[in-house]
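Dear colleagues,

As part of the handover before I leave the project, I'm documenting each prediction I ran so the next person doesn't have to rerun anything. This entry is a single chain, and its sequence is reproduced below.
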Amino acid sequence: MSRANRQIRILDIISKHDIDTQEELVMYLKAEGFNVTQATISRDIKEMNIIKTLAADGKHYKYVAREQKDTSTSDKFLGIFKSTVLSIKAAENLVVLRTEPGSAGPASELIDRLKYEEVLGVIAGDNTIFVAVDTIPHTEMIRQKLEDLLDTTKLR
């Protein structure tokens, strides 16, 4: 399973459970089928800017995701998009993206945040994203913009 999927699961786990140690987080992830080590989790925690804070009982600590500025959040969604999108194709007034399993939701969040005027809406399944475009002539333009997001050299 991909790094992006693992990091999404980490955020979900720490939002639902008071996780005190990296080893405990490894246990949760292994129970969900992720083959991870404590060293991998340590790198994820640093990369994701996760911190420890006092738990509600006042005696223990737990991991929490630090609030991030909007720019870094957008950068994070761009990273997820770039690392999980496998293909982008256009048909009529739809752009269809294939992603790694379980990644369509987070990858589609970037498309929503970009607020392209020509995009009427975005629907994400498990590994497929449908982007409804306002007119057929705009479809290829949106497909190309999404392709360009995969290649950051074209964004500069």
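The chain has a mean pLDDT of 87. The longest strand covers residues 85-91.

All the best with the project,
I.
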